[in-house]
Write a structure and sequence with these properties.
A: MetI-like fold; B: mainly alpha; 2 strands
Chain lengths: 321, 321
C-alpha cells in the first residue's frame, strides 16, 4: 500500500506543475489593457507611459522571467496567491469568503445526484428490459445530453409555469445557510437539482451496468439458492460490490461538477467563487482569476488522489496494475 | 489453355457468389439510416446546422443591401418597431411571443430570435470545425512523434498530455480569455489546444498497435522510408478513429464555446450561449429566447455526439469504451 500511495502522489506532481506553470505564464502575459486600466487609476504619475512602467514594476513584471517564476512559486508555497487589483485584499481571503457557498452548492448537487441515481439505478437493473427500465434509461440519456445550465433554465420555466413560484434571482437576495436556511435553500434548490441531475445521469447508467454484472455472479446465485429474500440479496450482497466504481466515478466527475457550477452560479445569481471569478475577468482582475484556477486545480487533484487511494484500499487488485 | 479457362471461371464464380454484390452509395446510406436511426437523425440535424450557417444570408452573390437574408429572414442586429397610434410614436417590438412575423419571438432589443439563432450557427460551426481541424493536425503530429520515439520522449509527452487532460477545459478557457480580449480566432485556438490531448492519446494507441503488424515490417524490409510507411501504411489505419474523435470533439467544443459565451466572456458577435445569457434575464416574463437558444445548443451538441457514436459503431467497434 505504501508503494501504491507513493506512486499515486508522484503522479499528481505533473498536473500541479502544469497548473502552476500555465497560471504563471498567463500572469506573465498580463494584458496590456489590464496594466493600462490600473495605470489610469494611478495618480501622481506624469504620463500614462510612466504610470504603466510603475505598474509593471509594482507587479514585478520587469524582472527576469525565471526570477518571477521562482518568486511566484515561493509565494504559493507560503499560501500567497497575490493581491486583488480591485479590492486590494489578498486573493486567498477573497476566495475563502466565497468558498463555502460554492462548496455548499457542490455538496447539494452531489446529494441530489446520489438520491436520484442510486434508487433509479437499482430499479432499472433489477427490472431490466421492462418498460420502467426503458423509461428510466431514456431519462438518463436526456440528463446526459442536456447541458446543466439549459436544464436550469428549463427547471426555472417549469417551476414558474406550474407552481407559479420562482426563486430569488439576485446576488443581494442571497443569505447564508446559517443565517437564513429557508431563503438559502430556496435559491440553492434549482441549481443543485440541475447540477445533480447532470451528474446523476452518468452515475445511474454506471450503477445499472455494474449491478447487472454483479447480479450474474456465482455468489449471488448461491444467495438465491440459500433462499434469501430479494431485498437482502440486492442491498447486502450486490449493491456493496456495485457501488465502488460508482463512487470512483463520482469522485472523478468532481471536475465536471466544478465547471458546471460556474455556469449554474451565474445562471441563478449565487455569489460563490464562480460568479466572483467571472466578474473578476470582466474587470481584468488578474490575480483573482489566477488564484481561482489554482484553487480549483488543486482541489481537483486532491479529490482525484483521494479517490484513487480509497479505491486502492477498497479493491486491492488495482494496486498491482 | 484449359487451366487458364478454369481460372477464369473460378474468378467469375468468386465475383458472382463470394464477393458481395455492388450496391449504390444511396443504398448504403439508407441501410445505415435504418440500422442506426439515432445516427441518421443526428446526421440530419448536422446537415440542418450546416445549412443554417451557409444559407443564413443567401443568396451570397446578390448585393446584400437589397437582398433579404433567405433562411435567417432578417439581419442579426435588425430591431423591429411598430407605430403606436395612442402615443403617436414608434415603439420597439420587445420580448414578443412567437408569431408569423417573428417565428420564435423577439428579444429585449426587439431583434428576431429565429434570425439570430440561424446567424448564430455560424459561430458554433466556425469555432467547432476550426478548433478540431487545428487540434487534430497537431494531435496526430504529436501522436506520431510520441509513438515513434518510444522510451523517455514518449513517456514525457504522454505525462504532459495526461496533465492537460486532467485540467478542466473551462479553467483553461478562463485563463485564455483573461490573457487578452477574446476574438473568435483566439477562442478557436484555445479550444484547439483543449482538443489536442484526446486526439493524440487515441491516435497514439492505434499507431502503437499497427506499428508491430507484419505488413509494416514487410514494408520496412523492402526498403520503404519512414515517412512513406507513416503516410501510406499507418495513416490509413488512423483515419477511422480521427473521424470519430472529430465528430465528438466538435460537440464538446460547441458546448464549451456556448458555456463561455453564456458567462459573457465570449468574443463579440451572435452566439447561442450569449443569447441564452441575455434571455435568462427575462426568462420568467418571456421565456422564448432562453428556451430556443438553449435548444439550439443542446440539439447541436447532441447531434455531433450521437453521430460520433454511430460512426464509431460503423467504422471501428473496437474503440467502444
Amino acid at each position: 500500500m505504501t508503494a501504491y500511495i507513493f506512486q499515486r502522489v508522484l503522479l499528481t506532481i505533473p498536473v500541479i506543475l502544469l497548473a502552476v506553470t500555465l497560471v504563471f505564464l498567463a500572469g506573465h502575459a498580463v494584458p496590456d489593457y489590464a496594466v493600462r486600466s490600473i495605470a489610469q487609476g494611478l495618480t501622481g504619475a506624469e504620463n500614462l507611459d510612466q504610470a504603466k512602467q510603475q505598474v509593471r514594476h509594482d507587479l514585478g513584471l520587469d524582472k527576469p522571467l525565471l526570477q518571477q517564476y521562482v518568486e511566484y512559486v515561493g509565494g504559493l508555497a507560503k499560501g500567497d496567491l497575490g493581491t486583488s487589483f480591485i479590492t486590494k485584499q489578498p486573493v486567498l481571503e477573497e476566495l475563502k469568503l466565497r468558498m463555502p457557498v460554492s462548496v455548499e452548492l457542490g455538496l447539494l448537487s452531489l446529494l441530489v445526484a446520489m438520491v436520484v441515481s442510486i434508487p433509479v439505478g437499482i430499479i432499472s437493473a433489477v427490472r431490466q428490459d421492462t418498460w420502467l427500465d426503458y423509461v428510466l434509461r431514456f431519462m438518463s440519456i436526456l440528463g446526459l445530453a442536456i447541458p446543466a445550465f439549459y436544464l436550469g433554465v428549463l427547471l426555472l420555466i417549469f417551476v414558474f409555469k406550474v407552481f407559479d413560484w420562482a426563486p430569488p434571482l439576485t446576488t443581494t437576495a442571497y443569505r447564508d445557510l446559517w443565517e437564513d436556511p429557508v431563503q438559502n435553500l430556496k435559491q440553492m434548490a434549482l441549481p443543485a437539482i440541475a447540477g445533480g441531475l447532470a451528474l446523476g445521469a452518468g452515475m445511474m447508467r454506471l450503477l445499472r451496468s455494474q449491478l447487472l454484472e454483479v447480479l450474474r455472479q456465482d455468489f449471488v446465485r448461491t444467495a438465491w439458492a440459500k433462499g434469501l429474500r430479494e431485498r437482502t440479496i440486492i442491498f447486502r450482497h450486490v449493491l456493496k460490490n456495485a457501488l465502488i466504481p460508482v463512487f470512483t466515478f463520482a469522485g472523478l466527475e468532481v471536475g465536471i461538477l466544478f465547471s458546471g457550477e460556474i455556469v449554474l452560479e451565474w445562471m441563478f445569481s449565487i455569489p460563490g467563487m464562480g460568479v466572483y471569478t467571472v466578474t473578476s475577468i470582466k474587470q481584468s482582475d488578474f490575480p483573482t482569476v489566477q488564484g481561482f484556477v489554482l484553487v480549483i486545480a488543486t482541489a481537483l487533484v486532491a479529490t482525484n488522489l483521494l479517490v484513487d487511494l480509497t479505491y486502492g484500499w477498497l479493491d486491492p487488485r488495482v494496486r498491482y496494475q | 489453355m484449359e487451366s487458364s479457362g478454369a481460372a477464369d471461371s473460378t474468378a467469375l464464380v468468386l465475383e458472382r457468389e463470394i464477393l458481395p454484390p455492388r450496391v449504390s452509395a444511396w443504398r448504403v446510406a439508407l441501410r445505415m439510416g435504418l440500422r442506426k436511426p439515432l445516427g441518421a437523425i443526428s446526421a440530419f440535424i448536422i446537415v440542418l446546422v450546416f445549412g443554417a450557417a451557409m444559407f443564413a444570408g443567401w443568396p451570397p452573390l446578390v448585393d446584400m443591401k437589397d437582398a433579404q437574408p433567405f433562411l435567417a429572414r432578417y439581419e442579426a442586429e435588425e430591431s423591429f418597431f411598430i407605430y403606436d397610434e395612442a402615443r403617436f410614436m414608434e415603439v420597439g417590438l420587445q420580448k414578443e411571443p412567437p408569431s408569423m412575423a417573428h417565428w420564435l419571438g423577439t428579444d429585449d432589443q426587439a431583434r428576431d430570435t429565429w434570425s439570430r439563432i440561424i446567424w448564430g450557427a455560424r459561430r458554433s460551426l466556425r469555432v467547432g470545425l476550426g478548433a478540431l481541424a487545428l487540434g487534430t493536425i497537431v494531435g496526430v503530429f504529436i501522436a506520431f512523434i510520441s509513438a515513434y520515439s518510444r522510451g523517455l520522449t514518449d513517456l514525457i509527452i504522454q505525462r504532459i498530455m495526461d496533465a492537460f487532460q486532467a485540467f478542466p477545459p473551462i479553467l483553461f478557457l478562463i485563463l485564455m480569455v483573461t490573457v487578452t480580449e477574446p476574438t473568435e480566432n483566439w477562442l478557436t485556438f484555445a479550444l484547439a489546444v483543449i482538443s489536442v490531448p484526446s486526439v493524440s492519446r487515441i491516435v497514439r494507441s492505434v499507431i502503437i498497435t499497427v506499428r508491430e503488424m507484419p505488413y509494416i515490417e514487410a514494408a520496412r524490409v523492402i526498403g520503404a522510408s519512414a515517412p512513406r510507411i507513416m503516410i501510406r501504411h499507418i495513416l490509413p489505419n488512423v483515419t477511422a478513429p480521427i473521424i470519430i474523435i472529430f465528430s465528438i470533439g466538435v460537440g464538446v467544443v460547441i458546448l464549451a464555446e456556448a458555456s463561455l459565451s453564456f458567462l459573457g466572456l465570449g468574443p463579440p458577435g451572435v452566439s447561442w450561449g450569449e443569447m441564452l445569457n441575455q434571455g435568462r434575464l427575462f426568462v420568467l416574463t418571456s421565456p422564448w429566447q432562453a428556451l430556443f437558444s438553449g435548444m439550439a445548443i443542446t440539439l447541436a451538441v447532441l447531434a455531433f455526439n450521437l453521430a460520433g457514436d454511430a460512426l464509431r459503431d460503423i467504422l471501428d467497434p473496437r474503440l467502444r469504451i
